[in-house]
Amino acid sequence: MTRPTMTGTLPADPQRRHWLRAGLTTAAVAALAPVAxxxxxxxxxxxxxxxxxxxxxxxNESSYGPSPKVGPAVQRALVEAPRYVSAAQxxxxxxxxxxxxxxxxxxxxxxxxxxxxxxHLALSxxxxxxxxxxxxxxxxxxxARPFGGRAVEVPLxxxxxxxxxxxxATIAPDTRALFVVNPHNPSGxxxxxxxxxxxxxxxxxxxxxxxxxxxxxxxxxxxxxSAVRLLRQGQNVVVFRTLGKIHALAGLQVGYxxxxxxxxxxxxxRGVGGAHAQNQLSLAAAAAALADTVHVAQVRRSVALExxxxxxxxxxxxxxxxxxxxxxxFVDTGRPHAAVAAGLLQQGVRIARxxxxxxxxxxxxxxxxxxxxxxxxxxxHVLA
Length: 384
What we know:
- The protein has 14 helices and 13 strands.
- The longest helix is centred in the C-terminal third of the chain and has 24 residues.
- The chain is of the alpha/beta class.
- The N terminus is likely disordered.
- It folds into two domains: 128 residues, Aspartate Aminotransferase, domain 1 (Alpha-Beta Complex); 220 residues, Type I PLP-dependent aspartate aminotransferase-like (Major domain) (Aspartate Aminotransferase, domain 2).
- A seven-stranded mixed sheet has the order 3-9-8-7-6-4-5. It has a three-stranded mixed sheet with strand order 1-2-12. It has a three-stranded antiparallel sheet with strand order 10-11-13.
């Protein structure tokens, strides 16, 4: 597969993850009804965007739905909706996550972590640099800006991967953190395990390393690749996870971070991740989703199969693409993004925004087989 070579200083990704702070309506709870046992048989997540039925393949949401255990769990949690989340309830989820990840419960922070972490570092450490790859997801960096944080942008390498040597070389005495998304978004590329381990180990000796692993669950070998292994060794590393991707809880915006004990404690002293910042329904959904490893495995297999089919279609169209590891493809159409996106929208398919300077590349979320066929046909029509 032909690989592109591009350089340049690129803008940050303005998208954000925000945590659910209010209760859900009965209609919203009904939307969490159990899905079919097989992920492939689950209902698609198309939405009426305009007058036509538009496929939302723009935000890397899961079309396969949450675990069938989530709906009943949320229904049961409605009984507790009049009550604030207690410390004991939050601790139960922290213990569940800690057991799953092999860390201590006090290292688990549930709630708005990336943005709050960026703000905390800027406020507590003083003005300084926050290094990250561009184009990319820059929520943490953007959150630090109003408090003296300075974005230090490092372009992707020729294979559209995080440029590990360049990121490492950019660390300076005033660097407050190095933020890396692996697999990367929007390219989907995965930094190799051994190389990434060496990179993190070297970087964390000089600054805090924050690894966003939002898409790592789509890999069968996620546990062997996760930077959590380095955190367990006592390294200066924070790992962020969201349940908005493979667990299909984007509408609840549930996630957590795993951090060194000292940093986790400092964040809690600032009120980050406390019981008051949670809600009954999100906690119930998270606990149920994390417990259903069978559903996660089904979704992983389904997405992997559909990713292969997408690559076959793209090859057939004569297009080059990255070896994306998440639930999306990143492909060079050879045409302006705006024209392709507008053409696809006319065909009822919404894709992600442009990621400059890759102005001819498009990111398309992998949906259900039916959704993907529709998107592939639309892409072929637009490029004909």
